[in-house]
Amino acid sequence: TQVRNHLEACMQCHSFNDGENGAAPSLSSVFGARVGSQEGYAAYSSALQSANRVWDHDLLEAYLDDPQATFPGTAMPDPGVDDPAVRAAIVDVLDAIVNERESVELGDDPL
Predict the structure, then answer these.
(1) What is the reported pLDDT for 62?
(2) DSSP string covering 49-84
(3) What does the pLDDT read at residue 109?
């Protein structure tokens, strides 16, 4: 499934656990956080450090669509997710995971 495949790709660099940074920052508290400000992660690109924006659903969808267009100079190597329905589903699943709402089964991915 597309959503599961994209999330598994995200998890190559990101974690969903608090304070567990890898090659990229943890996504555990991404929603409502200032871009480029995850405590304990020091490898942000200057593009993200100077963004002066807050992560919300719309900004995350825009970033997943085209990271370089959203924040020119970002270090994220992902080329983006073309399908808007898949992007929206990824953000919804991420929101459910990080906010510990109902258990999300990636195997039930409809897309």
Answers:
(1) 95
(2) HT---B--HHHHHHHHH-HHHHSTT----------H
(3) 47
CB < 8 Å & 24+ apart, contacts of 7-10: 7/90, 7/93, 7/94, 7/106, 9/78, 10/90
Please state, rounded to an integer, the average pLDDT across all residues of the chain: 85
Query: Position of tokens 């997943």?
Result: 64
Give the pLDDT confidence of 51-102 residue by residue, as tens digits. Answer: 999 999 999 999 999 999 999 999 988 778 999 999 999 899 888 877 775 4
Can you name the residues that pair with 54 across neighbouring β-strands?
Answer: 34
- Report how far residue 74's alpha carbon sits from residue 99's, in angstroms, rounded to the nearest whole number: 26
Give the integer Cα–Cα distance in Å for 70 and 61: 10
Q: What is the pLDDT of residue 35?
A: 95
Residue whose token pair is 């991915």: 109
Angle at 90 between CA 70 and CA 23, to 5 degrees: 65
Q: At residue 104, what is the residue type?
A: V
Most distant CA atoms of the chain, gap in Å: 38
Taking the alpha carbons of 94, 74, 78, 57 in that order, is the dihedral positive or negative?
positive
